[in-house]
Amino acid sequence: MFTLTEQQELIRNLVREFAVSQVAPIACEIDDEARWPAETIKAMTALDLMGIPFPEQYGGSGGDYLSYIITVEELSRACASTGVILSAHISLAGAPIYQFGTEAQKQQYLPDLAAGRKLGAFCLTEPAAGTDAASQTTVAELDGDDYVLNGGKCFITNGDHAETFIVLAMTDKAKGTKGISAFIVEKAFAGVSVGKHERKMGIRAAHTTEVLFRNARVPKANLLGKEGDGFKIAMVTLDGGRIGIAAQALGIAQASLDESIKWAKERQQFGKPIAANQAIQFMIADMAVQVQAARHLVYHAATLKGEGKPYSKEAAMAKLFAAETAMQQSIKAVQIHGGYGYIKGTTVERLMRDAKITEIYEGTSEVQRMVISASVLR
Amino acid sequence: MCRNMAGVWVFSEQRSTLLELVGEGRKLADRLGVGLTALVPGGRFDAVDAIAFGADEAIVLTLPEGQPLETAAEAVARLVGELDPDLILWGATLRAKGLAARVAARLGAALVTDATALRVQPDGRIETDRMVYGGGGVATQVALTRPQMIAVPPRTFAEPAVNPRIGDVREVVVPADSRVKVTERRPKSNQGADIAAAGVVVGVGRGLAAAEDLALVEALAATLGGAVGCTRPVAEDLGWLPEDRYIGISGRKVAPKVYVAVGLSGQVQHLAGMRESKVVVAINKDENAPIFANADYGLVGDLYTVLPALTDELKKLMR
Amino acid sequence: MPNVITCYKWVIDEADIRAGGGGALSFEQAGRKISEYDRNAIEAAVQICEQQGGSVTAISLGGPEVKSSAKDALSRGPERAILALDPAFANADSQTTALGLTAAVKLAGAYDLIVCGEGSGDVYAQQVGPRLAELLGIPCITFAGKLTVTATGVVAERKLDDGVEVVEAAFPVLVTVLPDVAKPRIPSLKQVMGAAKKEVKVVDAAALGLAGDALAARFETKALKAPASNRKQVKVANPVALAEAIAGAVR
Q1: How confident is the model at residue B35, as a pLDDT?
Q2: B168-184: per-residue pLDDT in tens?
Q3: Does the beta-carbon distance from B132 to C123 stay under 8 Å?
Q4: Distance of CA B131 to the CA centre of its chain
Q5: What pTM, to 2 d.p., does this model score?
Q6: Which chains touch A (3 or more CB pairs under 8 A)?
Q7: Cβ neighbours of A276 in B, within 8 Å
């Protein structure tokens, strides 16, 4: 079903070559130190990866959506932290500006994001408003030519390094979700600050922080869409973001399979490689099937989005399946590695920790099931 | 000179390599019932040596000043055309490989580069083995064109004993090529022993954590009276050893009595450079490293604890 | 502003080769790639033209499968490609390759410099460069570790068995390069996409005027196998035992 074009294969090759030579070698180290991979991001900028799916007129690379998804997959196969940094930057910050921004907003903000001069982040979640977005407590009040934002967001991927935020805030509490609006907020605006850094189980090199607004003045011109469009913008953005996270999960699942095959062929027990045991062979066969099935779902959702067709249900299916695949395969990979897989600093141990987040963020697996069931039971 | 005298030719610009080829060429010529001719670039060493070790005649190629060796291609091709030898063995130095390829192009002939084995077939043709796919394969081939041309790495054959005979030495003057000029020659600075000539080689890979730790490897090599070699990354990426020390398909080929592989995994590209060693010893902390399948003796262990103990023990044994 | 030609080979990725029963090599699942040494050559050619102007033409020769190499090669910087494709060129030996490339170079028009890798990653016979130069009747400098292009020619530092030899040659000239000469870049996404818009000329053996003897086999290949290991593979327990084994072998 999915035969990649020659160009898509070449893009996969370039990202893989980069990932193998420059991303994988430091993956364990930056995970251990929770170190932001600044050099990697600089190199990704040079390879035109920071704005893959945006048109060249906005400083993007003019690539197709599936190429972007393959890029996240290949980066995540080497380092899931690096994968999600790119996914959040493109899917959650660049994409809503491209999709919902005015021409002036696109001209002002996309070129810096697409060329990697600035990093983007998406600020929706609050301590008391996760899946339940309508419980937003961050408010935006119009005061002259500015909106004044007050409140705090948490679990923001790229929070400390981003300079361009998409922020969701209540402009009219009485209207519930219809009272939410979206804003383009620069870190440089007075009253915007970065709060606490989270210490996480996995994807530790991708920084997750609070982003705080204290009388932050945002020009009226930075309202994305109309007042009250925020919830819709957030949901559409998350639909797209899910394909990015699905690709991240796919990369983790593929890496789990790669590591398992390598180890099973090398590791000798009772005078033969453990791959000679049927128990291991069957485990690896099942892993290969799961990974391939996930890939088809993910590429299918990406293709639909790339073709401008509806993809909400397919994105949820891809994200749900790929995330659970990543989790299951990484657990099997640790099992195949035995004691070695339980030791800090081995790849599979990191994969298992990184996999877990894919079942949680940008909609938990439970939310994906809600989206899917609502669609199929309609 | 009878027609037969053009039978087997050997060429090398290195004295030791030429004599090795003369030794092997003599055997082949006798077997084929033909003569043996040594082609020798002039001014490097005495062509009479070639005759003293078994050649029937020698042709001295007098090269113009300031010209690379390969300038001789046209003159050699013309000689081959005139005298029609059956077989030419080339010493496979980088220069001679280039010369041989250019001669072969002029003749439209096949050329086997870096043959690791030569076998005479009943029809007098030579079957050759050579490494392909970065050392992952061995191709066995017979050239169908005439003359058969085979380039053999230095030290593939033993240096022969003196086999004095009487033969002619004649000179062929190679005309200059005005388009090319050698402006400088910088001989290799003699940093330690030539690994290709050493009886024992200790080869080190990325298992070594720091350049300073080379001292451990050098101590072992010194105890054995050997030289230190390495894998490509140690020389090219890390720069811990000069590039003429890296052993592999595109680096040096060694065939010592004993090769000690220290902290190297045994990639096919490296194996291709040390496969002809008589005895291979491997030390690696990864029991799954492929080097163990390519070693006679293997010790699974950390080189930082193994090497000092091994060197101490060998000091006692080698006294 | 030099016109530069660079030649590359689309080789089987040796990492994908499997050894089957009896040491036979299986190429079933093997992918293809631009030979590693040729990537250095392409990069060297591209860097020269980035610094001095001029244009780079990439040329390759092989079976029909080589067609898929064009975008890969062009994403690395050359402005156009000429592909000599013919079933008769699959597994072409060094002489057939050089004959085909000679004809393809003539199609490329005026040139000053040809840059080739030191050898191919698969066969590594190290012959095509010098043979091509000889057939074109131009000077050849092999194994250059450094390459400088002047207004009228090149200065190359050859790294040879016995040291460095600095050679000057006038245009047109062919140089084979060592990996040191230029580290290949990973092409960027825009370069990959831009490659699709570049000119690719495809010619077959007949169009190049090659037939008969030029294409005839010059080798009989009797076997192609994985190298056999006939090592003893004795595991020793400690440095003392190892020392004894080594001392025994040295004596």
Answers
A1: 94
A2: 999 999 999 999 999 99
A3: yes
A4: 14
A5: 0.88
A6: B, C
A7: none
